[in-house]
Design a protein that fits this description.
102 residues; 2 helices; mainly alpha; rod-shaped; single chain
């Protein structure tokens, strides 16, 4: 066989390999696409509504318990602020001098 014959055989083999590799990747992508469509349908029917429900529960519990945790600190700050205001109002040195002058 001559070099031209081997060239023709190699071209045929390379094209068959290309077709075979294309078919393999085509089958892989076909089943991936089919799996993504199934997963998307499941998410629309079951997954996302259930996820929204759990997110709402987490948001509600976080809101509820964060207020329970912070409430004593807010109360303590309000009492301290009221006490400071009381002492400033009744024991302010500048106001004592005004009262004593009257």
């Amino acid at each position: 066989m001559s070099v031209g014959d081997w060239r023709d055989v190699s071209i045929i083999l390379l094209s068959l390999e290309g077709i075979l590799i294309g078919l393999i990747y085509g089958a892989i992508f076909y089943f991936l696409w089919k799996g993504f469509r199934i997963a998307h349908g499941w998410l629309q029917r079951i997954g996302l509504p259930q996820g929204r429900r759990y997110a709402a529960l987490v948001r509600w519990y976080t809101f509820r318990y964060s207020h329970k945790v912070v409430k004593p600190f807010v109360t303590a700050e309000a009492v301290a602020s009221q006490t400071t205001g009381f002492f400033r109002a009744f024991f302010n040195p500048s106001q004592k001098s005004i009262r004593s002058q009257q």
